[in-house]
Structures are given as C-alpha cells and as structure tokens.
Specification:
single chain, 2 domains, 12 helices, UDP-n-acetylglucosamine1-carboxyvinyl-transferase, Chain, alpha/beta, 27% strand, globular
C-alpha cells in the first residue's frame, strides 16, 4: 500500500511575517477534526474487525496517537493521505509497549489514554513534549483513582504519567467539578474495563464525540442531560468512520472573512455539533454574516457547509454559557473583539489558563503589542476594539495563538511578526498554504 506523505517535522521555532490582506476569496474543505481523529483511531483499535477512517487529520498530534497504538500491537495502514485502515484487536487485545508512549503536544491523547490504559493488564508510561509536560493531569487522575486505577506522576500532577496495569476497576458515579470533555471521556473509556456502571455528570454540557462514537461502534452508552453512563464489559464492532472538517480550524477563516472587507469564503463539510460551535453564536451576536447549507447527519454529529461574508462586527459581552462550546476558539474570538467596534468582555474562561499556553495571558499580551487596549482578568479579559498596528507577538509555541495572530495581522496597519509557530503542524499543517491561497498576507520569516 502507498504510504501517506509524512507531516512536516518540527524544526524548532519558526516565525511568520503577516501583513494586511486583500479581500479573501475561495471555497475549500478544512482538515479533519482533530478531536474526532484521535477518538477514531483509539476506538477503532479497540474494536473487533477492521475500520476505515476517512478525513483523518494528518497532524503531528494525531499521528502520535496512531503511533502509540501501533506500539501496542495494532496494525494501522495509511493507503492515502487523510485515510487510515485500523485492524482492531478488541478491547482486550492491546499488548505491552516496549517503551514510553509519546503523546507529543496533545492533552486530548494523554487524558483519554490515561483512562483507556488504566484498565489494561500491563504497565505503561505516557509522556509528551515540553508544553504538554507542564499541563495539569490531576483532574483526570483523581476520578481514575476512585475507580481503582494506579497512576503516578513526578510531582503528583504533571506528566509523565506512570500507569500500573492489572488493576480491577469499578464503576463510579462521578460528578466532575469542571466542564471537560477530556475528563468525561477518560472516565468513560476506563468504564469499558470496570465492573458495574460508570456515570459522569458535568456542571455544563461538553462535546459528546466519545459518546457518539462509542454508540456508533455498538457500545450501549446512555447520553443523558448533563452527562453519560455505560456498563463495563461491552465490546466494540468495527465500522467505517468519516471524520468531519474541524470547526476549530474553520474558525480562523470564519473570523478572517468576517473582518476583511470584501471577503467571501465557503467552507465545505465542517462539523457543526452544537457542543463545538459556540463561536457561531458569538460571531452572529456581533453581526457576522455566516450561513449554513447542506446540513447532514454523520456518525460523529451534524455536518454542514459554511458560507461567510464580510460584515461590520460590534463588541459584545460574551455569554458565559457559550464558553464551554468555544473554548478552543476563544483566542480567535479575542481577535474578532479587537477588530470590532466597541468593547467586548470574556468571563468564565479560566480553563484557558491550562491549555497549551496560558491563552488569556498570551492573547492579552499579543493584542497589547498590536496597540489594543486589553484588561486581563482571572477568567477572561476586557477588549476595546479599534485599529491594530504592526508589531511583534509571541505565540508561546501554541498553535491556536499563532493562527489567531495571523488573522489579526490581516487588519493591522503594519507588518506583524508572529514568533514560534512550528506547533501549528500539530493541528493544521496546511494552514500557511491555504491561508495564502485565500488571500492572507503571510510568509515564513
């Protein structure tokens, strides 16, 4: 079989030089959903039979997840770009890896794998890059320990995680203190190996990809208001999976086309699960012209084509109930707020402090460097919209921060240098080329 082309390796810090763009124009699909790609490989590996995954994101993070399962004895073929054929080994068929399992930059992979590996017969170690090694894992470790898992880390909270195998897990009724799909998913995946029923309750609904995909592969998961539950001992049946376009990747183009005069973009096949699309509601409240068409239902939720045209935006007080459904899009929302008329306020977004970077601090500092008045708070920021000037911003190695400032630069009065952008390859390896094709002023420094 022909192998998919390898993703570009990360060669350390790189920079973009971004400048004001002409009107953006084009019609294109965005890359496959990162969250779904991770889960598709994981659950297909645990299924009985062979699954074909189309639309797989060819990013550094998702490739790392596939490599982890190959290290545990799962054969995964790559017959074409964005396609994987996973020969499942069943829920009890994983084998002990020869060494440490490297999650790269992916918190999703590490937290979900912690749950999945807690029920295995063998010991394992999960590690990641420098950024991931600073991210807290206690929120996952605590409920898994309540289930009987044995998980240790060097400082009690941060990676690497050392998971002892051979433990008898028991189902729990867990009320999560945080609204986190990763925590919910980790507990549910451990629940596959637990005696009895595992139930997770959330303070606010979060994305339900894990539940939907478990159901699609034959696991009787009950999706409840504010949570989900499943009984241990279920087996999964292989099936073909179509990964939808990643709304988080589409978000950068939705904001850019809304802001740049004369722009019109059409994005094909984007996942529009309501637990992921809080940004649509926020942008429309600001006056954005974004329309859906061709809505259809996929195994992982609804999919639609999105058409966006330039429209003047105004500042808003972002409703807190939208925040969990746009947590990954808040950096680019901050750019929309900075270019809108009036003042915008973000509250209830403390989760941004523990992402790939402290995204509140990174966005506030970068926008201030471009002349925007920003007041940083503990769980958000206050942004006064206005004109942006050129300047130098540090992405702190965070892919979403880097792409958000590439968007901001399209409205700036001068050249913007965006530093440390190599990690964009973790989620959107083709961003530079696609952005330029649509009209972005963007080049490597």
């Amino acid at each position: 079989m022909a192998e998919a082309a390898p993703a570009s390796p990360l060669h350390g810090p790189r920079c973009w030089v971004a400048t004001r763009s002409r009107a953006l124009d084009g019609a294109f699909p965005v890359p496959g959903d990162k969250s779904v790609s991770h889960r598709a490989v994981m659950l297909a590996a645990l299924a009985d039979g062979t699954s074909r995954i189309d639309g797989f994101l060819e990013g550094e993070d998702t490739r790392a997840t596939a490599a982890i399962f190959e290290a545990m004895g799962v054969r995964i073929d790559a017959p074409a770009h964005a396609r994987r054929v996973v020969h499942g080994v069943g829920v009890d068929g994983l084998r002990a890896p020869a060494g440490t399992l490297d999650c790269g930059n992916s918190g999703t992979a590490m937290r979900l794998l912690a749950g999945l590996l807690a029920g295995q017969r063998f010991d394992s170690v999960l590690a990641g890059d420098g950024s991931l090694s600073r991210r807290p894992m206690q929120r996952v470790m605590e409920p898994l320990r309540l289930m009987g898992a044995a998980i240790a880390s060097d400082d009690g909270e941060r990676p690497p995680l050392r998971i002892s195998g051979g433990r008898s897990l028991r189902g729990i009724d867990f009320e999560s203190p945080v609204a986190s799909a990763q925590v919910k998913s980790a507990v549910l995946l451990a629940g596959l190996y637990a005696a009895g029923v595992t139930r997770v309750r959330e303070p606010r609904p979060t994305r339900d990809y894990t539940e939907r995909m478990l159901q699609a592969l034959g696991c009787p998961v009950a999706i409840e208001p504010g949570g989900a539950r499943l009984a241990g001992g279920s087996r999964l049946q292989a099936r073909d999976i179509q990964v939808p376009g990643d709304f988080s990747s589409a978000a950068f183009f939705l904001v850019a086309a809304s802001l740049v005069p004369g722009s019109s973009l059409r994005l094909h096949g984007v996942g529009v699960d309501p637990r992921r699309t809080g940004l649509l509601g926020a942008l429309r409240a600001m006056g954005a012209d974004i329309r859906e068409s061709g809505r259809r239902e996929g195994a992982c939720g609804p999919v639609a084509d999105l058409e966006v045209r330039h429209a003047p935006l105004r500042g808003i007080d972002l409703p807190e109930d939208l925040v969990p459904d746009m947590i990954d899009e808040l950096p680019v929302f901050a750019v929309a707020a900075a270019c809108a008329s009036g003042t915008s306020r973000i509250r209830g977004a403390g989760e941004l402090r523990v992402k790939e970077s402290d995204r509140i601090s990174a966005m506030a500092g970068g926008l201030q460097a471009l002349g925007v008045r920003v007041d940083e708070t503990g769980d958000g920021m206050r942004i006064e919209g206005g004109r942006l000037r050129g300047g130098r911003v540090d992405s702190h190695g965070d892919h979403r921060i880097a792409m958000a400032f590439a968007v901001a630069a399209q409205l700036a009065d001068g050249e913007v240098l965006v530093e440390d952008v190599a990690n964009v390859a973790t989620s959107f390896p083709g961003f530079e080329a696609l952005a330029r094709d649509t009209g972005f002023g963007l080049r490597c420094a």
